[in-house]
């Protein structure tokens, strides 16, 4: 597994405002959206392309188009939904699949409660959107879900990551014969006893959408 922490002053600035407990939900949603687009620029460096012939007003030339099958973007519900528009801005022709996962706050284990994905993902590049790579349980389960269906290239985009989550991903995906990359705006210090990232930004779903129970 490769972990790429995007080192850019605009990324650091937007993340700082997201971390601030006084940032309200509309501002949080807006900045998360912008931050994802910056992360997506880095995350799509390996997107598969093919040569594409065009005519400019002056001459014929060979350009670049996204290869087929198109990449699949997979937000993990609910908080990953807040990252979808920022991602689709860069990959407007990608397809979108959904996985709903919830973390049991006692065991910190993830379980799937909803899924809308093609049954066959053979040869598909997948971009998984999960704002907080905390314990790593949710992301590991989602990645296994996708690779079990044939996805052969996975990039996870996370606003924040914790070392414990990255270590768990490394462990759980060790036998997987599929390249996995995590792209994140920062690697924070640690998890607290409730599984929150420290210093973190709190509960990403609540910050995006309010406390909906
Ligand atoms: N999920 C969140 O939303 N925040 C954390 O800090 C950890 C998991």
From TrEMBL:
One of its GO terms (molecular function) is uracil phosphoribosyltransferase activity. It is an enzyme of class 2 (transferase). Allosterically activated by GTP. 5-phospho-alpha-D-ribose 1-diphosphate binds at residues 78, 103, 130-138, 203. Keywords: Allosteric enzyme, Glycosyltransferase, GTP-binding, Magnesium, Nucleotide-binding, Transferase. Residues 5-210 form the Phosphoribosyltransferase domain. It catalyses: UMP + diphosphate = 5-phospho-alpha-D-ribose 1-diphosphate + uracil. Binds 1 Mg(2+) ion per subunit. The magnesium is bound as Mg-PRPP. Uracil binds at residues 197, 202-204. The keyword Glycosyltransferase applies. Pfam families: UPRTase. Its cofactor is Mg(2+). NCBIfam families: PRK00129.1 (NF001097), upp (TIGR01091). Catalyzes the conversion of uracil and 5-phospho-alpha-D-ribose 1-diphosphate (PRPP) to UMP and diphosphate. This is Uracil phosphoribosyltransferase. It comes from Nocardioides oceani. The gene is upp.
